[in-house]
Amino acid sequence: MSANPSFDILGELLPIKGVSLGVAEAGIRQSNHKDLLLIALDENIRIEVVFTQNKFCAAPVIISKEHIIKRNKGGSPVASKIDFIRALIINTGSANAGTGEKGIKDTRLVCAELARLLKCDVSQILPFSTGVIMEPLPVEKIIQSLPIVVANLSPDNWYSAAETILTTDIVPKAVSKKILLGDSVITITGIAKGSGMIRPNMATMLSYLATDAAISQALLRKMINNVVDNSFNRITVDGDTSTNDSFVLIATGRADNQEILDDTSIEYIELQNAITEVAVHLAKGIVKDGEGATKFITIRVEGGKDMDECTRVAYAIAHSPLVKTAFFASDPNLGRIIAAIGNAEIQDLNVYDLQFYLDDLLVFENGRVSENYSEKDGSNVMNKPEITIRVLFKRGESSTTVWTCDLSYDYIKINSDYRS
């Protein structure tokens, strides 16, 4: 990695039958910049969404939850035409969070006008926002631009959509994948944005992933939770959970596979694995594009009593400013990692039973630095653009992986200049 990381788009971005995308330059925060995205869905398309756990969740999160509850009618299966979501409207430049009742009212106005243009019920619109917190939504600019995003809807607009949702990101994050389920070809395409304020407590800042596979609503709901737990809930840049985090999983059912109804079937498992692979690719892209990041760091914790303690250790390392700045400097001051592990509040931890590695280099064992470790070897590993920290306990069979990045001078510069 470098200060200007690349994010490879794996081949052509493939359209998903039943999904169209339109973009516009609404001038929300700056001119000549795409900042408004519409994702329009044909009738009878299933979606599931997970949202931020931040208690100051943004107005669009509040309204989206309201609309989803109305669609689900208290949790019953989707049953009628009005129960299906028809559009997602996403703006950058303003998070519309911490904006009180006015933010709620403004979001409702945008949804109402879009519903009028699309000739659907207002509860079939899900709004999303990202940008500066505690600044009012420029609702007039957005409403004036809605006819533009409707007019340029196209199934081939995925890359333009990925560009539109960026804020401090350097590069768009987008990927497509095809798999074979039985005799049916299934397509998956996803986009994401995120660079700073990343410690998703459910998902990422914003991500939209669609497949043409046919799957029941109940299994789609189960699948999204598994996908999130193994991708976006395993990344951190700075330990901050955004007020706007949202991840949307869309299943259009337009492929010719038989509808998946059994979560033990090979079709369900293969589809879940493929969607998780796409989500992991996007999640890693967010870390690689972390504000000012120069190193991509994988933290692997093995041999824990349970997943909870493994996760706490991994995040204790990932969130330590001292660890992150040492990696930026390629400085093998690795006692910082030991300190972070010790701060993870693991009960009855025997420090003589743990080891940790940098890549394949054994650094620590038997309560002290390894006899074969040298600082020169440690420095050689830390100079690499991608590094793995591996912590081994002897407490059980659980393990987990978290992805993070270093903390550089540019992180401070980007965030100190964020509103200028």
Gist?
The protein is an alpha+beta fold. Helix content is 32%, strand content 22%.
What's the arrangement of secondary structure elements?
Elements: E1 19-24, E2 36-41, E3 46-51, H1 59-72, E4 87-91, H2 100-118, E5 125-129, H3 139-151, H4 158-164, E6 173-181, E7 184-193, E8 206-211, H5 217-229, E9 246-251, H6 266-288, E10 296-304, H7 307-318, H8 321-329, H9 335-342, E11 355-358, E12 361-365, E13 368-369, H10 375-382, E14 386-392, E15 398-405, H11 409-416
Parallel strand pairs: 4-5, 8-9, 10-14
Antiparallel strand pairs: 1-2, 2-4, 3-9, 6-7, 7-8, 10-15, 11-12, 11-14, 12-13
Helix pairs in contact: 1-2, 2-3, 5-6, 7-9
Structural notes for this entry:
This protein has 11 helices and 15 strands. The chain has 420 residues and is an alpha+beta fold. The chain folds into 2 domains: 270 residues, 4-Layer Sandwich (L-amino peptidase D-ALA esterase/amidase), CATH 3.60.70.12; 121 residues, Roll (Ubiquitin-like (UB roll)), CATH 3.10.20.340. Strand 8, helix 5 and strand 9 form a beta-alpha-beta unit. Helix 1 packs across helix 2, helix 2 runs parallel beside helix 3 and helix 5 crosses helix 6. It is globular, with a radius of gyration of 22 Å.
Please trace the helix and strand order, writing H or E for each element.
Answer: EEEHEHEHHEEEHEHEHHHEEEHEEH
Task: Supply the CATH class of the largest domain.
Answer: Alpha Beta
CATH topology of the largest domain: L-amino peptidase D-ALA esterase/amidase
Q: Label the overall shape.
A: globular
